[in-house]
């Protein structure tokens, strides 16, 4: 059965907001697996790390599998230390997002995160030989590549995950663009990114929404929505669908995906409800269809 | 003292010969397809052109490095393998790679050819670099343009391979190999297709008041007043508005070019083995001017003479330039 | 072929105008045939744009140039602006700047996407043309001027001096 996962929160949500969020996820969301941990900015980690053991315990008690994700960018001493510490843990599982994590983990089992650029069967085979058990593919991959990668990974006994909902990560940088927008630098950012629970919107100068800034990360303006493609993804060998936490009702989002996977709700109805839940934010599936990522390609005939 | 090799760009055979003649220790280039990150229209080498170019370079004791630094999407890996086979057959001196599958293939199939880790692999810590060294026998890492000199010095002490840093040219802002901005707007991928803000999607819209918009796939990346210099619509160098920046600002970076010439002596002292000049998409005259100037400066420094740094600084005279992250972490 | 519109006088314009009067077409044909013969790899770099119509429009000259770099049927001709064909790509700028671009003596990138040069239509076609020209070993301007012997080279030298005196270079990515 295809599993639903909840990706790590990309934003700087306050400790209180996170506590409420995960309490609800534990109690109500039909997701099977939850990724925790700070992936974007090492400066944020101290704000929510103290709550981590309680959150893990809460989610596990609710029957969710918990995985800890490592940082996407590892450069500074504290980032190297954080990665090393996570890699040293026996439980829970970890998802690695930087080669520094692969180095520290050695051949012990681990998951490969979306920042690891596992684009093809050769790379996946290499990673599997080094102890990878599960691969999250980059969100810009088109359908034929996903199918080929999934087939190879399944053959090696790996789980295969694809982001099916939420803003796509389009870039990361050493520079903090949230701080820059406020005339600050990363070192004296004063955590201004906390103001934007769903990313800071950038618009073109002729007022078209285009991108979102989240600290050092640049995200898509639109939410990826592969709800219409779920049947195809599953038939192509994808085992896990990742929902990225956005500032919308994520319990409802997860329920829609679960209902569609279980055949309990017609796709068209589910997708229109998802559009409603997403408010003013556009939905897109262009990457999957080999088109510009922001595009919304009309549903193809079911496979 | 480091080798202080000069690694120079070659977008065409003519540019390669220009770089060799101007004193490059090595030139880097790619094939006319998605296997390298400068898969731009009209640029790069056919296998025959590369064969002739390798002969030309080797006759003048210049190395040729072949960039295979993109990420093959599943199902298309053969194109990268064939490119590696061709490069090995033609006698290139090293492959510049990013993808682990490609690195693994070359390490097993062509172990006699050096592997350099591309900046596209974004290895920015000693641990990440050691991972590639120990896994694939990587001999040199091209460091991301995000490190300060003390950080470079520190990394140098902790890794078993040579270091190459960018010293001049286009100033990349995003972590290379992790950027899908172009694919988001155009449907062509930097990682999988080697494309960045492709010319096929570029348009300049001129308005009646003399202002102009540079557009990529219909998105206005920047607008210019009648007297303002217009720029190429590279997404990370565009101007946008944000809630507290309603007038529009360079959200990521101003269009500046990197010029580390003032830091050259310090970088050599920090143990940097090789200096990379960016610009395979630039003209022969750019290659000639920049390579000549850096050749003279490096030779002066290696011989213990005072280098004429002013000449290097003048290469970007009248233009905006930056020392980026190398000088201070306030850049971040 | 020469329009009667009064124009501000520019250095070298008289010479160019006179040159254009002097049976321009046979000369252009000679130039392009010679280049095509000597630099056949140029066409490969143009890829699908061998059949694109380029309009090269030197703003201070009384005519524009129509280029269709099709190796099977090369077109390079001077056309009055009002009779210019519908072009896939237009490159408009001062003649001396256009000369510099094909010449590769100066770094063309700078002017290329700046206000000194207007590119409209298919940008990829223009980028291909520029990369194809940049892969030529010799200076196109020198070669062309050489075809006219010492007077040709003298005119070119005058162009260059005038250009250098009136232009400033700027950087673009």
What attributes characterize this protein structure?
heterotrimer; A: 303 residues; alpha/beta; TIM Barrel; 8-stranded parallel beta barrel; 34% helix; B: 332 residues; 8-stranded parallel barrel; 12 helices
Overview of the structural elements:
- The complex is a heterotrimer of chains A (303), B (332) and C (173).
- With 303 residues, chain A is α/β, with parallel strands linked by helices.
- Chain A has a single domain, classed as TIM Barrel (Alpha-Beta Barrel), CATH 3.20.20.70.
- The two termini of chain A are 18 Å apart.
- Helices cover 34% and strands 21% of the residues of chain A.
- In chain A, strands 1-2-3-4-5-6-7-11 form an 8-stranded parallel β-barrel, surrounded by 5 helices.
- The mean pLDDT of chain A is 96.
- Chain B has 2 domains: 5-171 and 256-331, TIM Barrel (Alpha-Beta Barrel); 181-250, no CATH class.
- Helices cover 33% and strands 21% of the residues of chain B.
- Chain B contains 12 helices and 15 strands.
- In chain B, the strands form 3 sheets. An 8-stranded parallel β-barrel of chain B has the order 1-2-3-4-5-6-7-14, surrounded by 6 helices. Chain B has a 3-stranded antiparallel beta sheet with strand order 8-9-10, with no helix packed on it.
- In chain B, a hairpin with a 2-residue loop joins strand 9 and strand 10.
- In chain B, helix 1 (13-21) packs parallel to helix 2, helix 1 runs parallel beside helix 10 (284-302) and helix 3 (77-90) packs across helix 4 (100-109).
- The longest helix of chain B has 19 residues, at 284-302.
- Chain C is α+β, with helices and mostly antiparallel strands and 173 residues long.
- The model of chain C is unreliable at 1-14 and 167-173 (pLDDT under 50).
- Chain C has helices at residues 13-21, 24-38, 41-46, 95-103, 108-112, 123-134, 140-147, 149-166; strands at 54-58, 64-68, 75-79, 89-93, 117-121.
- Chain C is built from 8 helices and 5 strands; from the N terminus they run αααββββααβααα.
- In chain C, strand 1 and strand 2 (64-68) form a beta hairpin.
- The radius of gyration of chain C is 15 Å and the shape is globular.
- Chain C has a single domain (25-165), classed as 2-Layer Sandwich (Nonspecific Lipid-transfer Protein, Chain A).
- The B-C interface holds B 11-15, 17, 40-43, 46, 49, 170, 198-200, 202-204, 206, 212, 214, 224, 228-232, 234, 237, 255, 257, 281-286, 289, 316, 318-320 and C 41, 44-47, 104-109, 113-115, 118-120, 122-124, 126-132, 134-137, 168-173.
- Strand 8 (200-204) of chain A pairs antiparallel with strand 11 (239-242) of chain B, so a sheet runs across the interface.
